[in-house]
Model the fold of this input.
Amino acid sequence: MIDLIEIAVCDDEKAIRERIAGLVEKQGADCRTELFATGDELLAVKRHYDMIFLDIQMKGRNGIETARAIRKYDEQAVIVFVTAVREYVFEAFDVGAFHYLLKPIGEEKFAEVFAAAKRGIEKRPRGREETPPLFLKGRKRGITLKQKDILYIESRSNKVVIHTVRDEIEAWRSMQKMEGELGSSFYRCHRGYLVNMAHIAEYSGDMIEMDNGERIYLAKEKYQEFVKAYMRYLRNGGAAYE
Done:
């Protein structure tokens, strides 16, 4: 059980902010709720919240843009979008949203979404278990790599290039074998690339940007599958899933 749920509510309408805060209080959970009128206000504190209720249509930076910025420093937050327009729903899921609520917010629907989000938070691993290291055997030496240090793997001719947080390592190994050896936090986003989802900063329909600024290809036919895998990864608290 989680002791205290840290919640942020961000909406440019004061009545909506207070409405959500009131509904949170009715759920009977031990929560601390902070209210923000703009996305910039929320981003300025740069705190890690367990749950964020985020309006999409706001003055200045909108909710989608705010969520993208949040994901650069917080992969675990459960984001619930609040919107009056259904057309933004698919964009919301692109940034790993847990759910969305349509305005006006119904008390019964809110309770349902809050309970599901709370269960997701409670299932998150408190201390992440280390994934098995990757051992690469060369002609003259062996190298052991921690999976968390790998940014992505690139196929190059008959070998692979492993891009890590520090350097690049070449190995005579197939992408298929690498994919089988690495944990489920890695995703084959293109025939030539295997990406570590722990280091994703943002993505578009055909490109993934890593947290070091490098960009790699995302095959267009893989986009929908990738979004589902990345959302599942985020919902699992940024840890490998079964």
